[in-house]
Amino acid sequence: MARVLVTGATGFVGRALCPALVEAGYEVVAANRGTTILPGIENVRVGPIDGATEWNGVLDRVDTIIHLAGRVHVMRDPEHNPLDAFRRINVQGTQRLAEAATRAGVRRLVFLSSIKVNGEYTTDHPFTETDLPAPIDAYGISKWEAEQDLNARARAGELETTVLRSPLIYGPGVKGNLYRLLQLCDRGLALPLGGIVNKRSLISLNNLVSALRLCVEAPRAAGKTYLVSDGEDISTSDLIQHICEALGQRARLLPAPQSIFRLAATLGGQAEMVDRLLNSLMIDHGLIERELGWQPREPFEAGINQMADWYRRQREGQVERRLHFVPSPVPAAEQDDVSVVMVTYNTGDAIRASIDSVLCQRNLRELIIVDNGNDAVIFRYLQMMSKDPRITLISGHGNVGFSRGCNIGAQLARGKYLLLLNPDCVLEPDTFPLIIDSLSGRAEPWMATVRVVNSDGSEQRGCRRTLASPQQWLVEAFRLYLLAPRYFGEKRVNLRDLPCPESITPVPAISGAFMFMRRDMFFELDGLDPAYFLHFEDLDFCMRLTKSNGRIFFFPQKKCLHIKGTSDVSPLAIELYKARGLWLYFRRFYSANISLPVLGFVWGVLASGLIAKGLGGLVRHHYQHAAPGRVSVET
After folding, report:
1. Which of 26, 121, 139, 585 is catalytic?
2. Is the pLDDT of residue 64 over 50?
3. Overall pTM surpassing 0.90 (yes/no)
4. Using CA atoms, how far apart are residues 593 and 470, in angstroms rounded to an integer?
5. Which residue among 167, 297, 410, 571 is least crowded, i.e. fewest CB within 10 A of its CB?
6. Exposed, middle or buried, 597 (CB in 10 Å: 0-12/13-18/19+)?
7. pLDDT score, position 516
8. Helix, strand, coil percentages, rounded to 5, for the chain
9. b (16+ CB within 10 A) / e for 388-399
10. What SS3 state is found at 204?
11. Which of 383-392, 393-402, 579-588 has the lowest mean pLDDT?
12. 139 is catalytic
């Protein structure tokens, strides 16, 4: 039985490929970055895949590698130098794997590349394998450089290599822009995409899996590069029509002149996305059909229907929304160790004080920093700090949001306890021992926070709060507790105006700035919900903890200074994320008792206030940065 190692096994393609390989009789090993696993398959943890990944022992008895892992293309890359970030993972990571494969005697490496190596669009003729590569963006360039290294090894006789260049992949589990298109179609929104007559090649997940399976064994695939597609070129308008039909919605496509559409997109910073919607990109997959006999067996309609069925189940909560977490065992001698996970995005210098305060804590086992994107100065500082054996730096994945970033870090955590800490929070000494000594003996699920304070020492809003029903949000938004304190005083969201207790006290909910808990409990609750990109993931987690008969405790004895406003992020973008998260929270936990029209009206009122606040912040931000001679300092 051939032994196949799959990198990126828990990703979109890997989660479909690994079971298919097992069904075909292969012995499959899933190489995972963290503790996320695929059930029923041998899983090995290798950590981040880059130029420093340690493969010793992982490749023992492996006959073939299917290399899916990589830094994927993102529309708005937060990296200061995206090409360097792509090269660290897609080029250096592939080189490191190929070198280890050669030493271990692996026969073949199958590499999933991208049609972006050929270019961004076609005119009269489809792309073929004989076309000169013409990658334009950093992602395509990194894939082409990785291909060149593999081809050189194949020519030198070191390793058999096979490269598959794929277009946009669709199917169950899809992410990114195609998932957002599913959401738009499901909501029945009118889209100004009618009349687009372009032609784009796609490939269904099942068709891609069948091509990858064939490349594992086919002798003629050694040293070859193949382009793959469904063989059915389709316009963007037709794609939307098919998705709407599969979702049971009526397609609402409004005709719009492409010139105006491109101008509006350019002004809005979405030119690249519009190019993908309007331009053609056709693929001729004839070579793999002639040489290996591969044909796409799943029709386009069947693949779209499967994707739509998965989306409906996911939307209705009938399948897992999050990855399957399995905590690694904790040695008995390290039972009180704390793993701190810190997700950072353009945080600024405040992260320096935060890191220093964490490293001074007793009971600290490790600090895991998840870099969602920082400027070059802060990123070099994080790289320098990661030389400390207690610090692990995870980078190169782009801005995946706060929830997903916390989950990524938690998968690598090894301590018994887990602290999710904002990168602009400064801790007092001996914070961890106080919480551990007070709560370690409790059997039920629990979470804890300390007194999160502003720079002036006042307790911060949200430090302790209620679970925030729609009615309570209206009371909070319109300050009704000031008009009728006796009636509305107990219907507030934030509890900071109540007298601060002198000792540990149960509270309904806390802020995501400081969330301390047992690590196994975090996994039992499936981590933070990645559907929340930023804001309200903390209330969602508190709600799920409460529904699991858990308790949340407030420790006023210790303070945590939260230096807010340090991230270089648009104030309007922040409020838009809040509005989106608020709707998700309302719909998930209150739609059973409140009708959607009423819920939507309440949300609309609150969202309008958030957007107005964001616009005001945007104006202030502009004048603060535009006024000559002014310096704004956050302390």
Report:
1. 139
2. yes
3. no
4. 11
5. 297
6. exposed
7. 98
8. 40, 20, 40
9. eeebbbbbbbbb
10. strand
11. 393-402
12. yes
